[in-house]
Design brief:
The structure holds 2 protein chains of 2 kinds. Chain A is built from 13 helices and 17 strands. By secondary structure, chain A is an alpha+beta fold. Chain A folds into 2 domains: 12-207, Aldehyde Ferredoxin Oxidoreductase,  A, domain 1; 235-393, Aldehyde Ferredoxin Oxidoreductase Protein, subunit A, domain 2 (Orthogonal Bundle). A two-stranded antiparallel sheet of chain B has the order 1-2. The mean pLDDT of chain B is 93.
């Protein structure tokens, strides 16, 4: 490979065709990199050039374009974000989704700035990238497994690595599917997992490679980052963020019990139990690469009905109907809800809105039990969990 | 010294270390090694290679207080 002159960039784009099972490495055009700075610009430029305008989201012609920027994999705070552009099935648009974790860092240690995936495999596969060793491996044993199980299995095979998996919702082409990189960094709300599922692509694994990420002026970069770090470390809300995550910012709102209701036309206040202390005792921060303010979290409830179970969250908030319950039960339900959404690979925000809309239609008699497969759409937790499962499995 | 219970897996220590020794970023080129424990959840093992010169750069830049410079060892 010719030596890339631009600082920060790894220097190559990897093109993978799932139909033919081939991979081609192309040098990153320095002019394009300069014109369309960073992951956002380059993935959008590649999408513009490579996704045919008439390509349906779930067709082999659609592309999954994974991109990083010149800061990715360095010490620049906030540079862990991975960018993915594709045509999404939820609305047929071409969004650029971003998510954290270690994928951008790991991909660049193999020498790639971007990966363009096209075609459709005839059987389930996963794509594994480690330096020049790019493999499509049989994923039939992984098909049907949830997001966390998939990550666990692939970590056993390839750690240190970073993984973009899909769960049952992606496999079943659900438009409100989402996934999480390395169990923590949510990615692709709007159905990126469905695009991967339509390609029979169960996961993309970036194994830690041997290439060094080089910057143009490392002394100057360190000086600039040191200045940023000083401000971040002294930020007055940093301790709260690390202790409670985003929940630290929304705890009062949650306690107020503000619930969106009546087809999102009204906010109803149903005072909810205070789960703040329980959450504080149950969580530990999880950071993306190079991040001094970890906003992801690992959750293991220390008490109550779901004591000892484990899950991950980007944004914890009380979910499900917690009225008439105590803090312990409300917390258990929230963690169960989060865990199910994580594992199926369903966007919990989209799901919450669709569920609310469905309940509204049901109340008005516009849809009936005939439309719901016999399920009565009551506003209770068990029904919510049942509907989520039905959403994932169709 | 490492207190792995405080580690969040940000890898800033490895990135700083690889930059100092090899002038590039890559965790595999660092003298400090943070390994995710496979089979556990969000648990890490921190160790130092033989050629670590105890410079303390990783301690200075760990934002989570997982490292301290008393003596060389593994946690």
């Amino acid at each position: 490979m010719a030596e890339m002159q631009l600082g920060g960039y790894a220097g190559s784009i990897l093109h993978v065709d799932l139909t033919s099972g081939t991979a081609v490495k192309e040098p990153l055009d320095p002019e394009m990199a300069k014109t369309f700075i960073g992951g956002w610009g380059i993935t959008n430029k590649l999408a513009y050039d490579l996704i045919p305008p008439d390509a349906e989201p779930l067709s082999p012609e659609n592309r999954v374009i994974i991109g990083t920027g010149p800061f990715s994999g360095t010490i620049v705070p906030g540079s862990a974000e991975l960018l993915v552009t594709s045509r999404f099935p939820l609305n047929g648009a071409y969004p650029t989704s971003c998510g954290g974790g270690h994928f951008a860092l790991m991909l660049k240690t193999s020498g790639y700035d971007s990966v363009v995936i096209t075609g459709r495999s005839s059987t389930p596969v996963y794509l594994r990238i480690c330096d020049d060793d790019v493999q499509l491996s049989d994923a039939q044993d992984l098909w049907g497994r949830d997001v966390f199980e998939t990550v666990d299995t692939l970590r056993q095979r390839y750690e240190p690595c970073s993984i973009i998996p899909i769960g049952p919702a992606g496999e079943n082409l659900v438009s409100i599917s989402v996934t999480s990189i390395d169990k923590g960094g949510t990615l692709g709300s709007g159905g990126l997992p469905a695009v991967m599922g339509s390609k029979n692509l169960k996961a993309v694994v970036a194994v830690q490679g041997t290439k060094g990420i080089r910057v143009a002026n490392r002394v100057k970069l360190q000086r600039l980052v040191d200045g940023m770090l000083q401000r971040i470390m002294e930020y007055r809300l940093r301790p709260t963020l690390l202790e409670l995550g985003f929940f630290g910012m929304t705890a009062a709102w949650t306690q107020l019990g503000a619930r969106i209701t009546d087809n999102a036309s009204r906010i109803e206040l149903v005072p909810a139990p205070d789960v703040k202390d329980m959450h504080y005792r149950s969580r530990r921060p999880l950071a993306c690469a190079g991040c001094p303010t970890a906003d992801k979290e690992f959750i293991r409830p220390q008490e109550g009905r779901r004591s000892g179970m484990t899950t991950y969250a980007t944004h914890y908030s009380a979910m499900g109907d917690s009225s008439g319950t105590d803090a312990s039960e409300a917390y258990a339900r929230s963690v169960e809800f989060l865990d199910a959404a994580n594992r199926y690979g369903i966007c919990l925000f989209s799901f919450g809105m669709v569920r609310e809309f469905a309940s509204y239609l049901y109340e008005k008699g516009i849809i009936t039990r005939e439309d719901t497969g016999g399920t009565e759409l009551t506003d209770d937790f068990e029904t919510t969990m049942k509907l989520m499962r039905m959403t994932a499995y169709g | 010294m490492a207190n792995a219970a405080r580690c969040t897996g940000c890898l800033i220590c490895e990135l700083r270390c690889s930059l100092r020794f090899e002038k590039v970023f890559n965790p595999s080129k660092a003298r400090i090694r943070v390994r995710r424990l496979v089979g556990a959840e969000n648990e890490y093992e921190i160790s130092f290679s033989e050629d670590c010169d105890n410079c303390g750069l990783c301690v200075r830049y760990c934002p989570y207080g997982a490292l301290s410079q008393e003596k060389r060892g593994s946690g």
